[in-house]
Description:
Layout: E1 3-7, H1 11-24, E2 29-33, H2 36-45, E3 51-54, H3 65-73, E4 79-83, H4 88-96, E5 101-104, H5 109-120, H6 128-132, H7 137-143, H8 147-150, H9 155-164, H10 170-177, H11 181-195, H12 200-206, H13 212-216
Amino acid sequence: MYNILVADDHPLFRDAIVNIIGIKFPGSTTYETEDVDSTLAFVKDNDDVDLILLDLNMPGMLNLNGLLDLRNQCPTTPIVIVSAEQEKQKILQTISYGAVGFIAKSSSKDMIADALESIFQGNVYLPADIMRSQVSTTTSHENQALPEKISLLTRRELIVLQHLTKGEANKKIAFNLHISETTVKSHVSSILKKLGASNRVKAVLGCSNIDFNHYLKR
């Protein structure tokens, strides 16, 4: 299955994550580090890591510098932040710095497992409240989807996008709309292309002020 590195300075939390991975992805191999230096040393000697779960507050992080150092050390390895951080702008900043997801440490075991599954499917993951929240005026302006781009979306794509803004993963959208996950992925790819967004997070942020009812009445 997968080779996953759990980088966190709390042994009990590492054990909990390793347990979740073992149940959700049987056959996977997990590795553990407890600070930035040991994490950088590990990835330098092991180039077969499929995913890194990184704590923002372990020794050596120095704000987000540890994430940047790790991103530079292994630019092709997906990094997911697993943290108790609650400041929304900092969470969004981790994505702009190259992380492919943010999982809150307060999440349930099932939520963490579902988040990891979504990430392995190629999605960028953020907590639902962050996906729904308004970002600052500057960020919102920079990412705001233009009406003419929204108008390019089909009715079904608009509905899928509306579910994305609620922080729903592909699996849940498929269940709610009674369609296959493959169909959802196809819709999401088309949505990103039409909106000119590089990932679903940017698409959602750009649509934070969209009145979907207005467009769905067309």
